[in-house]
Amino acid sequence: MKFRTELNIEKQSNSISQQDEILAMGSCFAENIGQKLKDLKFNIKINPFGIIFNPYSIAKILNQALDSKIEIENECEVIVQQNVFKSYDYHSKFNAATYNDFIALSDTRNNEIKKQLKSAKYLILTFGTAWVYRLFESNKIVANCHKEPQAKFKKERLQLDALVDIYIKIFNRLFEQNPNLKVILTVSPVRHLKDGIIENNQSKSILLLLCSTLTNHFKNNVIYFPSYDIQMDDLRDYRFYNSDLIHPNQMAIDYIFNKFSTVFFTESTQLINSKIEKLNKLEYHQFLNATDQEKQKHQAKIKSLKSEIEQKR
Fold it and tell me: Smallest Cα–Cα separation from 225: which of 178, 259, 255?
């Protein structure tokens, strides 16, 4: 008797190691998986402009990097809240104390992304929602409303055909400058219930079809990893969500990352990962009334494990 439908995912021939340069962008689930990789000492950069939920805004950031410049046509795209400068194109945590500092920081991050796209082996993109808000003042789609009055925005849903066209053009440019780049696409399992249950399902359907179309079009360079599908079908139970019933809990994130590991890591990389996890626990350990001898023994274990990890890399 079966009580769940486990998703069996084909192992990828393109394996990821700690040395591979990785850029992860997208929704908060990109941060969850990206942080797991970072904790395991992978060479990864996560959301240089903060969490971005919709694929249109992610595409805008990628195009800016490929174009080597940021287009800020007028100051309505940059706002001031509590003496802090922010942009409708980025997350609120990306900010600066002055307008000039904000522009300088934006240029710096943009140049960093440009450099990473040329040298990275993997680009992980996590799409969260197809629902977006358009600023009436500029008629431009924003990545974040920054809790500004809703009357300033018009809500709309992105169209599949337009997204496919945008990303085919972006990926062609990416692979032209970096033929070895592999793009891993995934749809965030976070439920955007503020849009409505039916509307959230419609949104996720567009994102899933976008991923399917792009993987079929770029068979050698674009890979789909089914984070959303694992959460919805394999982990079909509210016990795998936080109390808000929106965000996957740590148990679900760990399970999905384990699936990710099985698909993208070799046995030797997984062995190194297990040793790094052990090392992290040793380094985070806090002593209570330990003797100097016990502390020295603990440090010796850390040093030995670090040496062992370096030898296996």
Answer: 259
